[in-house]
Structures are given as structure tokens and as C-alpha cells.
# Entry
Amino acid sequence: MTEGNLEIGVLNGPNLDLLGTREPGLYGDLGLDGILTALESLGGELGARITAVQSNHEGELADWIRDVGSRQDGLLVNAAAYTHTSVALRDALLAAGVPFVEVHLTNVWAREPFRHHSLLSDIAVGVVGGFGADSYLLGMRALTTHLRADT
# Structure
């Protein structure tokens, strides 16, 4: 872990670039930029710097985990649909060896049955979901607490 500020990577999977316009009744009306701005503000309070990525492409996300995510102190991971399907992202997270919190805007366990299974949650520090954009903020608080407890 770095001295002083923590370095936190934020991975955002497919279609999260559409937040604010995509099914606002389900995902809320705050866009991804607004979520990242709120995370940066909270990071300032918690002594953490944010580096974020969003991609609709699985390989790009796996590359980011390997190239950028592996150099972070911890990760917030909203893999979106890849949560339920991507062995590649799971393997990249295992290879990176960085603690991460899995984040979901919705309560995936109250949705369609195929969303009830995550390929990531058993290797995550924890899972936060169902609180809309606040899921990211709650995940950030939990992750920074976890990382500081490890020192």
C-alpha cells in the first residue's frame, strides 16, 4: 500500500456509460460522471485517489485490471453484466491480487434469477448492492476501512 493517500481503481462494465438515461427507474438518474465526481469527493475525505475506467469490452477491462488495477491499493468493481458471465475478469482480478469490493446499483438478488450468481463475489472483500449510486460510496468506505485495517 502507498504511504498517505490510497490509490483506488474503479472498474465500470458494459452499459454503465448510459447511466442517467438508461432505465432511470431502475438505475437512477445520476450519470457515471456524477458517480465518479461523488467518489472523488469522498476520496478526498478518506485520503484516497480515484482512477476509473468504463468499457463495454471484456478484454479492455481485463487489460485494465492487469495494467492499471494491479497497481492500485484496492478496487471498486461494478462489472455489470460481466459479473455473471466473465471468467476472464475473475481470472484477471485473481492475478492482480488486489482487494476489491463488488458493487451493484440494484439489488441483483431481487431481480432475474440469472443475476443471482456472481463469478466475482467469492473472491471479493465484500459486496454492496441495491443502494443506487450510494452503493459506490458505501463500497468506497468499506474498502478504505479494510485497506487501512490491513496496515
User: Anything to note?
Assistant: Strands lie at 6-12, 48-54, 74-78, 100-104, 126-129. The first helix runs from residue 24 to 27.
